[in-house]
Amino acid sequence: MTVADFQRARSPQQQQQRRRDILDAARTMLDRTPLGDISLRELSRQVGLSKSNVVRYFPSREAVFLAVLVEDWSRWLDVLAGRLPPCEEPGTGQRTEVAVGAAIAETLGAHPRLCDLIANSQIILERNIPVATARDFKAAALARTARLAGLVTSVIPELSQEQAFEFAGVTWVLIVGAWPMANPSPSVASVLAEPAFAGMCVDFVQALTRTLTVVLRGLRSQLGDAD
After folding, report:
1. What are the pLDDT digits (tens) for 57-99?
2. Distance of CA 146 to CAs 13, 118, 165, 214, Å?
3. Which CATH architecture has domain 61-226?
4. Domain(s) of CATH 1.10.10.60: residues in the chain
5. CB-CB neighbours of 77 under 10 Å
6. What is the pLDDT of residues 99-113, one digit of tens each?
7. Which of these, 85, 93, 92, 84, lies nearest to 221 by C-alpha position?
8. 141: left (phi over 0), alpha (psi -120 to 50) or beta
9. Which of 31, 53, 115, 149 is geometrically suited to a Cys-Cys bond with 179, CB 3.0 to 4.6 A?
10. pLDDT at 3
11. Which residues belong to CATH 1.10.357.10 in the chain?
12. pLDDT tens across 131-152, in order?
């Protein structure tokens, strides 16, 4: 059953289906249209609802895409959990750090919609939402950051929970910075294709792998300093 089959969603099942249809439509649109070009009106049209009906479920366009971000984040973590190396053995530290950094970077690179939403989270998505939506999003972000931290400590148990959480937070910051640089506008991309500017091109997976590896090594070195 689609949203168009019940214009008046009365039962909890119908309401849940309507919410799902809105998110599915938003996800489909993001796969073919830049976030900045998607209006609430166009999203509503794609779902087959009026704007006022969509706002009953999500208070703004930004709230819809934050919900997509949260769901995609969970799905990425599920994928990452299966890609991380086993718990490290003594003497394998540096290899483990590279493997963890590569697993995170490569799986993120395979989830471009998530990376784009993260890159736009502070500058676009958090700008037009009520306090309740902001609180819900930050709570969801906190839980998923904690899960990433837990995945890292399952591989590198030497790290404290505090260090692993710091690493997870840095991962978010690096996505925010590296993703737009690796995916410039068409005009900028054409300039970067010129030999004179080749050194300014950013390979997202490569850059993220290297930087996350450095961060992990820096956190591990703190343990040695503490000793």
Report:
1. 999 999 999 999 999 999 999 999 999 999 877 656 678 999 9
2. 31, 16, 6, 21
3. Orthogonal Bundle (1.10)
4. 1-57
5. 15
6. 999 999 999 999 999
7. 93
8. alpha
9. 115
10. 43
11. 61-226
12. 999 999 999 999 999 999 999 9
- 155 is written with which tokens? 């591989």
pTM greater than 0.85 (yes/no): yes
pLDDT per residue as tens digits for the range 165-212:
999 999 999 999 999 999 999 999 999 999 999 999 999 999 999 999
Q: What is the pLDDT, as a whole number, of residue 13? A: 82
> What is the domain class of 1-57 according to CATH?
mainly alpha
* Separation CA 96–CA 101 (nearest Å): 8
Q: How many CB atoms lie within 10 A of CB 59?
A: 15
Task: Specify the pLDDT at position 14.
Answer: 81
For 117-121, the CB contacts below 8 A with 24+ separation are 117/30, 117/35, 117/65, 117/66, 117/68, 117/69, 117/72, 118/69, 118/172, 118/175, 118/176, 118/179, 119/175, 119/176, 119/179, 119/180, 120/35, 120/36, 121/66, 121/69, 121/176
In Å, what is the CA distance from 196 to each residue of 179, 187, 188, 189? 22, 15, 13, 13
Band the pLDDT of 224: cuts 50, 70, 90.
Answer: low
User: Distance (Å, rounded) from C-alpha 64 to C-alpha 203?
Assistant: 29
Determine contact, residues 144/77, Cβ cutoff 8 Å: yes
What is the C-alpha separation between 33 and 25, in angstroms, rounded?
Answer: 12
State both tokens at 185.
């506008």
